[in-house]
Amino acid sequence: MIRIIVTHAICVLGLTFAAQAGDSEARTFYGEISDSQCALNVHSLTKSHQEMYKSKSGAAGKTPASCALYCVDRMGGNFVLASKAHVYHLDNQGLARRFVGEKVKVQGVKDAKPDTLHVLNIEKD
Could you read off the pLDDT of 80-120 as tens digits, one per residue? Predict the structure, then answer.
């Protein structure tokens, strides 16, 4: 009887930890490498770079890449994957920087943190 209870408890704990860990299998996610400031409407009403192009006396540049770099380097943002319905935080900022402003596909594992990806690979789409 005790063995059954212990076995059941171990199974329940294992399922709990698996659910908290997020998806354990790698998937492919599509979108654009952007910055959290624009993609999450911190200073953008349209989830785009348009407001930044018009402000900051042109310091943000006129391309998605220049704007995202400005927001990450000077405004405290992070690189994200902006897809149609979601904005995913990326744990590998160095790799994301290499593809800033590009349409990409990201192979990654969805983390337990909401909308966070453990990045395995990024390549142009």
Answer: 999 988 999 999 999 999 999 999 999 999 998 889 999 99
Rounded to two decimals, what is the model's pTM?
A: 0.76
Q: How far apart are CA 12 and CA 24, in angstroms?
A: 17
For 101, list phi and psi in degrees, rounded to 5. Answer: 80, 0
- For the four alpha carbons of 69, 71, 72 and 73, in that order, the dihedral sign comes to positive
Nearest to 22 by CA among 110, 87, 108: 110
Q: Which two tokens stand for residue 25?
A: 């299998």
Q: Where are the domains of the chain?
A: 25-124
Q: Which two tokens stand for residue 44?
A: 């953008």
Question: CA-to-CA distance for 72 and 119, rounded, in angstroms?
Answer: 18
Check residue 43 and report its DSSP letter: S
> Which amino acid would we find at residue 45?
L
Name the amino acid, one letter, at 101.
Answer: G
* DSSP letter assigned to residue 124: E
